[in-house]
Amino acid sequence: MIKQAIIPLAGLGTRLLPLSSIFPKELLPINGRVGIEYIIDECIDSGVKEIIFIISKRKQMIKKYFYNDIYYKKIIRKKKDPKIINEYQKILKYRKMIKFVYQNKPLGTGDAILRTQNLIKDKFFLILFADDLIMKRNCIKDMMKVHNKYKSSVIASMNVKKKMVNRWGIFSISKYLDKNNFLISDIIEKPKTYQAPSNKAVIGRYILPKSIFKILKHQTKGKGGEIHITDAIKKLINEKSLFIGHRFKGKYLDCGTMNGYIKSSISISKL
Ligand code: G1P
After folding, report:
1. CB neighbours of 176 closer than 8 A, spacing ≥ 6?
2. CA-168 nearest atom, ligand 1
3. Ligand 1, closest atom to CA 131?
4. CB atoms within 10 A of CB 270
5. Please, what is the end-to-end C-alpha distance for the chain in angstroms?
6. Is residue 1 over pLDDT 90?
7. Residue 41 burial by CB count (10 A; 0-12/13-18/19+): exposed, middle or buried?
């Protein structure tokens, strides 16, 4: 059973400017709900007990959202509205599970994850990217089943158009375990079309081993001058660590781009 999940939230959100210039993109509404709540629910639903949020000073508002007691208590005292009481209780439930860690310089996903190393207790943990919503099916629940069967790391994946490979981490596979699960033999961060070993993209759900921290400590900057989790995974694969790509079921929504963000509310409203 995997009990801890990390959610990196310190990114600048440049793809969603100007919406994200003051307001953290993770708090923007998606079909009338605060976006980040969708993946918190995915975690709770799959049995995760602790969620580590990586935020920055710029994104303190995310912490405030979960610690807005004075405001809620005042309103509830005045109005005693069951709907508001419900909302407050939901926030309190979320808060109990969340720890906050800081990454004040946007040095990449690998650098962000490294900041949680003293909090990770078990041999394996989860990472979820808030930009990537997967609806209609609990993706991490399915990934945990694969992990339990093979005792391996697992990465969520989907096929993308060849000309779009430079938006994603892309991996090559050495063997199909079944229709939806395959052994990963190599991985590359946002390759050019001619460099891409396949059209299998990494989507933001990972089950990773604690041993990745040793690698992240010495990880040098990669694409765009950032420290990427993809490059640390590549090293683990080279050291013969078992990584399985899991083609998830469910509907994918890319909320990290303006077009995708706009479409996501419409898609969810139709589910
Ligand atoms: C990150 C990862 C990339 C992965 C993607 C999934 O990129 O670096 O490998 O495919 O998430 O959403 P980002 O979206 O932060 O640019």
Report:
1. 182
2. 10
3. 12
4. 7
5. 30
6. no
7. middle
DSSP code of residue 81: -
C-alpha 250 – ligand 1 centre gap (Å):
19
Q: Say which CATH number the domain at 252 has.
A: 3.90.550.10
**Overall domain count for the chain:** 1
What domain range is 219 assigned to?
4-269
pLDDT, tens digit, 9 for 90 and up, residues 16-65: 999 999 999 999 999 999 999 999 999 999 999 999 999 999 999 999 99
Instruction: Give percent of the chain with pLDDT exceeding 70.
Output: 100
Q: What are residue 203's phi and psi, to 5 degrees?
A: -110, 150
**DSSP category for residue 219:** P
* d(CA 257, ligand 1 centre) in Å: 12
Among candidate residues 1, 210, 5, the one with its CA nearest the CA of residue 94: 5
Q: What global pTM score does this model have?
A: 0.96
Contact 125, 208 (CB under 8 A): yes
Tokens 């979320």, located at residue: 94
Phi, psi of 144 (to 5 degrees): -65, -35
Centre of ligand 1 from the C-alpha of residue 129, in Å: 8
Of 155, 161, 142, which is closest to residue 203 (Cα–Cα)? Answer: 155
Atom 9, ligand 1: residue with shortest CA distance: 169
Residues with CB under 6 A from ligand 1: 109, 129, 131-132, 168-169, 189, 201-204, 228, 230, 256
What phi, psi does 157 have (nearest 5°)?
A: -145, 150
Please choose, from the candidates 225, 18, 171, the residue with its C-alpha nearest in 3D space to the C-alpha of residue 28: 18
